[in-house]
Specification:
The chain is α+β, with helices and mostly antiparallel strands and 285 residues long. The chain has two domains: 2-132, lpxc deacetylase, domain 1 (Ribosomal Protein S5, domain 2, 2-Layer Sandwich), CATH 3.30.230; 133-284, lpxc deacetylase, domain 1 (2-Layer Sandwich). The chain contains six helices and 18 strands. A hairpin with a 6-residue loop joins strand 2 (16-21) and strand 3. Helix 1 (82-91) crosses helix 2, helix 1 (82-91) packs across helix 5 and helix 5 runs parallel beside helix 6 (267-284). The N and C termini lie close together (9 Å).
Length: 285
């Protein structure tokens, strides 16, 4: 990968906050997005502890890939960061301090839409520094069983994403989505509103393990053995949300251009791909 110059870096114009409950913990939390100087990137801060802990949103700080992306630094973590990360970066914000009062980012409506609206409420301002992005130069891929995550070069220096949601039961259908260029407008309209995916046959078992305690049917697209159970926002909402998760996970690299493809991949495989790209970038320096 190689760095390239774009327009100027950005941050939010003012601080904005949102309260809710965590997807997995079910506990109340509050998130505040604050302006940050050029070159900061996106940094989380745990503000509910006796001492404020800073946790950079970078692939080196991934602490868990279990059903979500969790970051950790010096023994302090923040859970389920992927939806807010995707919203902040792919709507157009390069630098932000995200304060979290609680161990997990609030669920919102189960998608990134809550956080897109939060960024729009804050506004975006340019900073006095040229924006840089990493460009995928050569194909990179990682696999696990039948799942695969791939990054390919693109000639036009855009961010492109495709995802295939593979049917887990005979009565289900697989889904595929492709977004030829993930602009802020495309992200807001076609990707951000897709809610988190839950499999009907897994819900009870997950809750016994202390997961998915904060999500209900309104905040998730529930997949049953014969298709969706209840309302869906898109006919392919599961695949769209998985594309959203992929975009949230590669946001741990900062701005990138390339074609990112997930075939049945989850957070763990997405993180492996991001690490492989990070190593490729270091070798190219």
């Amino acid at each position: 990968m190689a760095a390239r110059l774009l327009e100027r870096e950005t941050t939010v114009a003012r601080a904005v906050s949102y309260r809710g409950r965590g997807l997995h913990t079910g506990r109340p939390s509050r998130v505040t997005i604050r302006p940050a100087p050029a070159g900061t990137g996106i940094v989380f801060a745990r503000c509910d502890l006796p001492r404020r802990h800073m946790i950079p949103a970078r692939i080196d700080f991934v602490g868990t890939s279990r059903r979500a992306t969790g970051l950790s630094c010096d023994g302090v973590g923040v859970l389920t960061v992927e939806h807010i990360l995707a919203a902040v970066l792919w709507v157009g914000v390069d630098n932000a301090l995200i304060e979290v009062e609680g161990e997990e980012v609030p669920l919102g409506d189960g998608s990134s839409r809550t956080f897109v609206e939060l960024v729009e409420e804050a506004g975006i301002v340019e900073l006095e520094r040229e924006r840089r992005a990493l460009r995928v130069r050569t194909p990179v891929w990682v696999t696990r069983d039948e799942a695969c995550a791939i990054a390919l070069p693109v000639e036009d220096d855009v961010l492109r994403v495709s995802f295939t949601f593979v049917a887990a039961k005979p009565g289900m259908r697989s889904e595929h989505v492709h977004f030829n260029e993930v602009t802020p407008e495309v992200f807001k309209r076609d990707i951000a509103p897709a809610r988190t995916v839950g499999f009907q046959w897994e819900v009870a078992a997950l809750r016994e393990k202390g997961l998915a305690l904060g999500v209900g049917q309104d905040e998730a697209v529930i997949v049953g053995e014969n298709g969706y159970v209840g309302h869906s926002r898109f006919p392919d909402e599961a695949a769209r949300h998985k594309a959203l998760d992929l975009l949230g996970d590669i946001a741990l690299l900062g701005r990138v251009s390339g074609h990112f493809i997930g075939i049945g991949s989850g957070h763990a495989l997405n993180h492996e791909l991001a690490r492989a790209l990070s190593r490729a970038a270091e070798r190219a320096m």
